Amino acid sequence: MGKENCHPYLLKIKLIYPKIKNPIGINMSFKPQFFQLNSSEIHLWAFSYNFLNKDIDLFANILCQKERDRAAKYRFEKDKISFICARGALRILLEKYTNQRSQNIVFKYDEFGKPLMEGPSVPHFNVSHSGDQILLGFCANHPLGTDIEKITTDFDILEIAKNHFYGDEIAALKSLPRLKRYEGFFSLWTRKEAVIKHIGKGLSLPLNSFSVSMESMNPVNIKEVKWTAKWATDHKLYAIKAPQNYKAALSADKKVKAFRTFYNSETVYLLKDHIEKI
Predict the structure, then answer these.
(1) pLDDT at 22
(2) Total-model pTM
């Protein structure tokens, strides 16, 4: 396909991210059968909202009034944009997976504030956003947890770790060179948050009630679990590739055999292609 037939945002993305695998050669139409998840796979969609700033009003238009009211309460504009893009992307992708119009999707919320969507063909989903990055995960038959965090350095790592991390995790952080500790901290934090979100009980399950490995190999080792050792054997934890200065993780059922990640080029193309047709 020649440049003259490319979506303009694909060209923009390729200029900014020249090392991204050329998306033009794959099927960018995302035909309906693509969204028929099998029982053993997860789809992850990752993108920067910086590519969608000009479309923020279009994304806001597909949200319900409660979502727009919630967005308006954010103190900082960047947090407002992040929420609108994350929730708008969730609605668009759920339309693809369920054939329900994005504007008409109704979410219910459990006692921990987690959004749910009822229906026979509705996949499990989870959303995370930090900085300008947004990560969404979908699985047909099994709950999942995702987390992405921007690496920041304006806090005392060991003080936070002392209150939220397991003893061996704190020891692992202390063993790192000082300049590497923040990266190590967010590796642990995203993995633990992914597990907490997977279980779905909010802060009622403390971060220091289990231990995970800081190593880069996948799947990540879940070493200690206070509430039930069986949970660690029935689930897997993965470090997910993330942009520079970010860390990301996925917690999934062990029956999941594969996950496919769509990064900026593919995700932004799909979202813009959809939103501009509404």
Answers:
(1) 37
(2) 0.88
